[in-house]
Every structure is written in C-alpha cells, then in structure tokens.
Amino acid sequence: MEQLKDFISNLFSADDWPPRWVCGDWSAFHGWLYITSDIVIWLAYFVIPAIIIFFIQKRHNLPFLPVFWLFGAFIILCGSTHLIDALMFWWPGYRLSALIRLLTALVSMATAFVLIRDLPKLIEMKPQDELKTYQMEKQLKMYEAEISELKERLNSNTK
Fold it and tell me: Where is the Ethylene receptor 1-like N-terminal domain (predicted)?
C-alpha cells in the first residue's frame, strides 16, 4: 500500500530517472527518428478517433455504439503511450507512462471483451437490411416533403 501511495504522490516526478537522451548511446539521427515517429503515430492516433466521433455524430441509430466509443478510447490511449515515449527524451515521466499503459491495457481488454461478446450479433447483421432501411427512410422523407408542399399549395389556393 505504501508503494501505491508513493507512486501516486510522485506521479509527475521525474527525479528518479535520467532523460532518455542520457540513457545509452543515442545518435541524433536515431533519437530524432524515434521521437518523430512516435509523434506522428500519436497524431494519427488522435485523428482516427476524431473521425470516428464525426462518423458517430452523422450516423443516427448506429448499432453497437459502445464499441465505437471503446475503440476511440483504445486508440487515444495507444497514441498517448507514443507521445509519452517521445517526451521521455527530455522528461522521464515513467510513473505517468506506467499509468497510461495500465489504462491502455484495461481499455484494450474491455474493447476485446466487448468485441468477442458482440461478434455473433455483428456477424448476424445483414448489411442489405440496413441499406433497405436507409433507402426507405430517405424515400419517406421525400414523401413527407411532397406532402408538406402539397398542403401548402392547398392552403394557399383555398385562401
């Protein structure tokens, strides 16, 4: 219990370790290749959930919505591990890195569990049924617009 209290109270302390540049024999090329790659991966891992959120907002009645949210959290946390790895070259926040990795592990397992649980339902879904529903909803909206237009014409003719 004492170690946990120590861990939490020193979560943002980097005094116990040297920056990554000092560990080993990093050449400037190798270090910057590592840092740049991690930052680009982090950036992609933040753009992908933004696209997922945009998709969720545009698609109404989306089945299996929790799966999308879990994927988003999983991807953001994976990206966070890359960002903290890049920062380690200057700020060795290994405790924070460990916490982010723990959260990533937990969300990863939750995502895997939900996918395993929902896979039979996902397999049973018939894309054609969804397409038909979408087409029927689109047709219904067109009919509703036509009916509204006809009512307006009728009202303007009777006045």
Answer: 34-124
Residue for token pair 């509204």 = 148
CA angle 119, 125, 128 (to 5 degrees): 150
List Cβ neighbours of 84 (8 Å cut-off, separation of 6 or more): 93, 96, 97, 100
User: What gap in Å lies between CA 29 and CA 41, rounded to an integer?
Assistant: 18
- What is the rounded end-to-end Cα distance, in angstroms, of the chain? 82
DSSP state of 61: S
Buried-exposed string 1-15: b where 16+ CB fall within 10 A, e elsewhere: eeeeeeeeeeeeebe
Tokens for 16, please give them.
């116990």
Residue 88, Cβ density class (10 Å: 0-12 exposed, 13-18 middle, ≥19 buried): buried
Render each residue's pLDDT in the chain as its tens digit; 159 residues: 999 999 898 888 888 899 999 988 999 999 999 999 999 999 999 999 999 888 888 877 777 778 888 989 999 999 999 999 999 999 999 999 999 999 999 999 999 999 999 888 878 776 666 667 777 888 888 888 888 888 888 888 776
Question: Tokens 């170690």 map to which residue?
Answer: 3
